What does this fold into?
Amino acid sequence: MPENKLYFEDISEGDESPELSLEVTRTHIVKYAGAGGDFNPIHTDEAFATSIGLPSVFAMGLMQGGYLARALADWVGVGNVRLYKIRFTGQVWPGETIICKGKVARKYEQDGKKLVDCELSVVNHNGESKIAGTAVVALPSKE
Amino acid sequence: MVNEAIVGMEFPPFELPIEKGKIKEFARSLGDKNPLYSDEELAKSMGFRSIPAPLTFTATFLHHVPDENFLLNMMQEMGISVATSVHGESEFEYLAPVCAGDVLTVAVRVLDYYQKEGKRGGKMNFITVESSYTNQDGELVQKDRMLFIERESAV
It folds into this structure.
């Protein structure tokens, strides 16, 4: 899917993004470690993780942060995002299904720009929070 | 031990080249099939100078440029314990596009520090580190902020 053409006029407060959902596996974590460079063994080495009392390895916060960013960019266009802010509220363990989504909280104009504030979240299949986030997006206008 | 003296601490600036191959690899690692991250002609047709960086792409420098242990070394210099701290928040402020072919200069500094009583006793340290990215044309293109939360032992 190329850059989405979403216009300011197309959206309303309360609109929701398409959901991005996936079951996180150790392979996802290792792939992200390879590309992102975070080889902290608590994320990649099961023997190490269990030796310090963890149930298993767990995902890097910026991995699920990356999936949420992907959902946001697919929805509003990567070039339109002005601010992306995320708070890590829970660790993501292999076998969990995560659901990334966004919602329009506010639509307004400021300094000649057409802006949208979004609320973002990553939750697991039981609805437990993993990330609470916000974004500010500047959208093109049809005018 | 972390204290307010770290506010304003700066780390030596370094160059971060934005590479096509690295963008493609990063996007793939997140299952992102958007052709914008691999097709330069498509990216140009949509108004980008070249392939744009995915939203969280810049954060990878912490683990490969200027040193694969940059994050660990930085935490050590600030006096943050890796064992009792977590990465609590991340914020990315996009001022202008970051595209393949750009060479960014990255300046990292400690923006803020405060301490609070933890809910389960003991003190909690909150440290915000900001990375500012300036491109080859001298334009400030992005600022990232990371919050570290450190739990001090109650003893």
Observations:
- The helical segments of chain A are 26-36, 41-44, 46-51, 61-76.
- Chain A touches chain B at residues 1-3, 22, 28, 31-32, 34-39, 61-63, 65-67, 69-70, 72-74, 78-79, 81-88 (CB under 8 Å).
